[in-house]
Amino acid sequence: GGDAQSDVGGGGDAGSAIRVGYSQLGAESGWRTANTESVKENLTAANGFDLVFVDAQQKQENQIKALRDFIAQDVDVIAFSPVVETGWDDVLQEAKDAGIPVVLVDRTVDTTVSDPYVTHIGSDFAAEGKKAGDWVAENAPDAKIFELQGTLGSGAQVDREEGFDAVVGEQVIGKASGNFTRAEGRTATEAALQAYPDMTMIFTHNDDMGLGAIEAIEAAGKAPGTDIQIVSVDAVRDGLQALVDKKFNYVVECNPAFGDQLAELVKKVANGEDVPKETVVEETTFDQTITQAQVDARPY
Ligand code: GZL
Predict the structure, then answer these.
(1) How far is the CA of 150 from the centre of ligand 1 (A)?
(2) Does the Cβ of 123 fall within 6 Å of ligand 1?
(3) InterPro entries, from UniProt (predicted)?
(4) Considering Cα of 150, then 155, then 161, then 167, what sign does the dihedral take?
């Protein structure tokens, strides 16, 4: 009775491994590789999982194909981090019709399917954008800001932009996407330096694009962190190193290392136990008071 999501489970009974189909969106950033490591370190055979892990190289059609393969294999649980928010209606309905519970990881979906997933674990991206905006309002109220956006249409991009712009949107003089990668962050910044010569700050939706921006700013003979300040999100080690080196000015942490919490959630889902609809991972912020020792101690 009920729809598939309300009587989830029927998955791993006691003893047999829980078969998890996991669609990871790509390996585009330091954050993503740390997230993949955390998932693989926790959803192990020793922990009772049989993990089928598929990387989509940031292509939605690859993720949809992977999800359909998981449905065909009748896995116990599907987990995925959607590269963009929309375009999942058909495959989410197919998973629901197949009675396979879906666990949403990291990024978010915008779908017409009712009750499309059992639980979501990830960051509050709007809160991350707000934290960055609050720092700018406090420390650089006259900054002319270029916003270097993540993958257009991804939950992380949409919500970080919303959170940031709600605080200091009137200081934003231009926006362009660098697709969360270092290389595209560099090319987008090269163009922005031409288009917005009066720019004094870049708000980048992740560290990798910010590191590309540093390359472009230095190639243009300017000093990142002073001529052009940089506010970033993620706090992977390379981003925090840029902060110690005074090339970044402020970094909002986005924590990828929630594989342990994910493993617990998946176990409960497979066993038909109640789980919270939402698990927001803990994360903080960093400024230039950070020490080299703190950076060296970071696990990723
Ligand atoms: C955020 C995650 C984002 C990171 C980027 O949870 O989806 O995707 O901020 C990554 O580094 O590419």
Answers:
(1) 8
(2) yes
(3) Peripla_BP_I, SBP_2_dom, TAT_signal
(4) negative
